[in-house]
Specification:
Elements lengths: L13 H11 L5 H16 L4 H16 L10 H51 L4 H10 L7 E8 L9 H14 L5 E5 L2 E7 L3 H14 L4 E4 L3 E2 H22 L5 E3 L5 H5 L3 H12 L10 H12 L4 H8 L3 H15 L6 H16 L8
Parallel strand pairs: 4-6
Antiparallel strand pairs: 1-3, 1-4, 1-5, 2-3
Helix pairs in contact: 1-3, 1-4, 2-4, 3-4, 6-7, 10-14, 11-12, 11-14, 12-13
């Protein structure tokens, strides 16, 4: 490539700089260096390739070489060497300033792009923007919000941002696997987030697997698919709710599907009614020696084990006899028999409510 193959505007004044440097032996002045930076910025803003621009400058230097004057006092071979060193120093200075301006403009463009992307993600996940405008902006980032989307959220032992190695690792394997699919991978509040079309379960399954491995055994929650821009917010909130529920309920599953946990929001929709049920059903357990917590843990293990006493005893590291004694104690205090199908539903619902409402740690 020659200098004729790049726009002449980006070489404006370059030949004059080299000619003057050759004639006087001086270096570029500050204003001349800044002018090269500005040309580099303009080239970057106009989408020119830096490699071609550098080659163009070198071609212009070579074309001008034989016409350059010698520095004063230079003669013979030493004069040739002095002129060459002076010209090459000026060319180096000019090209370096040009490249610096180019890179400066690129960094600014990247920061603007990152800011626009972050603003879009915040608006998308919190629903703070006009939905029509949000849909237009989404296409720029590879999403078509007219379709249904589902959101997966991964939480690990530490907070993550877009530059974190965990994020980069997950992003790399997803790009290799799915290429140009309409997927948005980002971070928010220290968690990894993947937004994918609702009919592409394979994307979220793969993200779940990779995020679980990359976060060294973190937990991933997946919201249900919902249509439209508001659907992304809905799915995201479901995934966050599932993570919060897993924390409060001490669920040990590493992967949570909001669709499998819908009963819990239903149970707590009327918080006052649930609080009344917990107080009236489990309140008498406070009278037990050691308080309500050991007996509440006994009920939790008993119900979680399918009401199999031997399995519940193993989970609690108790003998079956000790477990049976605790169940009898619960029956005497509450008037409800955990083994009686008629009483079991009320007791189990109250136990779930206690875990959701953090009773008895918190007063209801």
């Amino acid at each position: 490539m020659t200098d004729r193959e790049i726009p002449a505007d980006y070489l404006k004044g370059y030949a004059d700089l080299l000619t003057d440097a050759s004639a006087t032996g001086r270096r570029l002045r500050r204003d001349e260096v800044e002018s090269r930076r500005l040309l580099g910025e303009r080239a970057a803003e106009n989408g020119q390739g830096l490699r071609a621009l550098v080659v163009g400058h070198l071609s212009a230097t070579r074309a001008l070489w034989t016409r350059l004057p010698s520095a004063p006092g230079a003669d013979g071979a030493s004069g040739v060497r002095a002129t060459a060193a002076t010209v090459l120093a000026a060319a180096e200075q000019a090209i370096d300033a040009f490249a610096e301006g180019y890179e400066r403009a690129q960094r600014l463009a990247v920061r603007k792009e990152e800011a626009a992307r972050r603003e879009f993600i915040d608006d998308l996940l919190y629903g703070r923007s006009d939905l029509g405008r949000l849909s237009e902006r989404a296409e720029r980032f590879g999403l078509r919000l007219a379709h249904a989307h589902a959101v997966a959220v991964a939480a690990g032992p530490e907070p993550y941002d877009d530059a974190h190695p965990v994020m980069r690792r997950v992003e790399s394997v997803l790009n290799v696997r799915f290429g140009e699919r309409q997927i948005l991978l980002t971070t928010k509040d220290g968690r990894l987030i993947c937004v994918a079309p609702g009919d592409q379960d394979d994307v979220l399954r793969f993200f779940t697997k990779q995020a679980y491995a990359a976060t060294d055994g973190g937990r991933v929650a997946i919201g249900r698919p919902h249509p439209g821009a508001g659907g992304v917010v809905h799915s995201y909130e479901e995934a966050l709710g599932a993570l919060d529920l897993a924390e409060r309920m001490a669920l040990d599953s590493p992967v949570l599907h909001a669709a499998d946990l819908l009963v819990f929001p239903v149970l707590t929709r009327d918080r006052q009614a649930m609080a009344d049920l917990v107080r009236s059903t489990l309140g008498p357990l406070r009278e037990a020696r050691g308080g309500a917590v050991p007996l509440l843990e006994t009920l939790t293990a008993y119900f979680d084990s399918g009401c199999v006493a031997a399995e519940a005893a193993r989970r609690l590291s108790l003998s079956v006899r000790a477990l049976t004694y605790r169940l009898e104690r619960i029956q005497r205090l509450t008037g409800s028999d955990p083994a009686d199908p008629m009483h079991r539903y009320t007791l189990q619902t109250a136990v779930i409510g206690a875990r959701l409402l953090d009773w008895p740690s918190k007063e209801l």
